[in-house]
Structure prediction request, 719 residues.
Amino acid sequence: MHMAPMTIAPTSTSTSAPLAIDAQGLVKDFDGFRAVDHISLKVKAGSIFGVLGPNGAGKTTTLRMLLGIIAPDEGRCLLLGADRPLSVAKLVGYLPEERGLYPSMSAIEAIAFMGALRGLPLAEGRRRARDLLEGHGLAYAMNRPVRQMSKGMAQTVQLLGTIVHRPRLIVLDEPFSGLDALNQQKLEGLIRAQAQDGVTIIFSTHVIAHAERLCEEIAIIAGGKVPFAGRVDEARNRLAPQVRLETRAADGPWRAALPPGALQQGHHWQFELAEAGVEPLLKALIEGDAGIVSLSIERPGLHDAFVAIAGEAAAADLDRAQEEDRA
Amino acid sequence: MTEGMNEIVRGALVIARRDFNALIRSRAFIFFLITPVIMLGIALAAGNVGSHMAKPDLARTIAVAMPDGDVARLIAAQRRLKAIVPDFPMLETGRAESASGDLLLAGSLRSPVLHADAQDAQALGDEVRLLVDTARQSEDAVAAPLAIRLKPARPHPAAPVDRSATAQLGQMCLFLATMLLAGMVLSNLVEEKANKIIEILTASIPMEAIFLGKLFAMLGMALIAIAVWTALGGAIALLAGSALPAVPAPAVGWPLFVALGFVYFSSAYLLLGSLYLGIGAMAATVRDVQTLSMPVSMGQVGIFLFANYATARPGTLIEGVACLFPFSSPFALMARAAQFPALWPHLVLLLWQALCTWLIIRAGTAMFRRNVMKSRGMGRRAGGRRGRVQPS
Prediction:
């Protein structure tokens, strides 16, 4: 269901919990093009945070700035309380959008190498790599060179390399991209398991369903800006529930209980209704003898909220990206 | 600051270990090791053939100073022997010395005396003995055996001009080694960019650590190669013995000169390598690297020629500039080690070269960050499927 865009001021999430990421006013220009325009993000420690937006919205640039891979032109960022991301690199795991492994390395060596980059001794890295590969059903491919692996297998190896040093913060850029449904499900499980261990996870995606299933909080990025950052239900609550009603009677005193903008088509009605209005509506329909044939009250999904917050164009881009992904 | 340096060193070690293992475990490394040996073998063989074709063998000429009758019999004997052994030495009569000045057969056939230095006596003694025996076939049996009088070996004066030959030899070896090996650094980051590993590396360790690690891995590989080639060269020199031209001993002595050779190779390699790594890091594809390798090689030749020019003018301003200019400094100082015994300039200028290497690495990483570490398409050619500056 697509709706007309609404202008909603950016909000910030609750800051009562300690923050794993605290970014303020990040700006990045590339050759005169403003890719990121004063983005602020607060990610609570131990939460799963989704960065949602179509391709080209500025998600990757934002994540790269958070990790110190590229320096922002303006703004500041604290990662796990440190203003130099590299100083806490040992506590961070990062899966970039463009996956990469050395083709000649074996799975076990690739994972241990990624751990070594984050300060994990090689021997310990190999031991953990063995455990992780066994735990993810890839024991048979331990010594297989990356160049001989399928794309999904290589992607899993890289993901295991991202968590081998047991980071406190995991940043995943489009982690579901390129995975089949089964592997997407496995990845969701892995993300949940990490979060249960108290690890903070921030991931970018253009697939709303993943964010809706996994995240407590999200930031919607469109055109380099964040029009919304907050809880998923808070985003959904920006829109009133949609009521679809079919009555036997076409008219009666109960009609006064329907909102003024309600659309009528014969005996069918469609209108928005605040949560608090449901009970009074039911009472009026029953007492007014409207003869209810059917009544559905639909809470808006995150997609609807996205459309309302980011606009039709951004939503269309998002849908296109999802279609490309599926293809 | 110290923590930052520790982080750089730790990261550099991780990268260096990975790269070094990948380099020396590849099959290409074996080919890399043996290619110069094969080329040297071909060059030596060609040189050997050329030298035989080009000049008469002066060392195989024996001057004869004997009575005329004995000389005539010697000449007749030499002809007989030459018919059997075409390579048999020539005789020079009427002179008290051979053309090469090394061998003189004097006395008489009854009591012949060969004047030669130890080397020539060993090399031609048997042939002279055969010549004398053949010449006096009809002589009585009481003739004395060939006596050999050893002349003192001719001294090789270590004049400055000869040491400059040593200087140039050192410089040439250094140049050839860097020419062969430093250019390889150009393509060193292409793999990471092609495989998109660069983003993981830059998110994990300082960029300087990536550059340093790659440089030291390549340096380690290069030093292994040079050690192998030096060992082979040494073995060839031992086998060839006096056949190789004598080179005057360097002013600092051979052991220190060789040690300084390794040090200056390392320094030249790190200096040029850090520059090449910085330049190569800008290249998005192997084709770009190939395009860059030509001007880079020209630059190396230019630096060598400059250092060579300066070496021929010791103590002048131009030599001072060559010693100070970071890229020519190792070459100029290598030559200096051959010509002058003082060691302190080497210590001071090695520190200077190390500082310059670090500054070049810093500049290279800054350029890399500014020009390559952008958003999507990091490391890819602009205008590709995903543009370099297109954000996501």
User: Anything to note?
Assistant: Strands of chain B lie at 61-65, 90-93, 104-107, 112-117, 147-151. Chain B touches chain A through 32 residues (CB under 8 Å). The two ends of chain B are 34 Å apart (CA to CA).
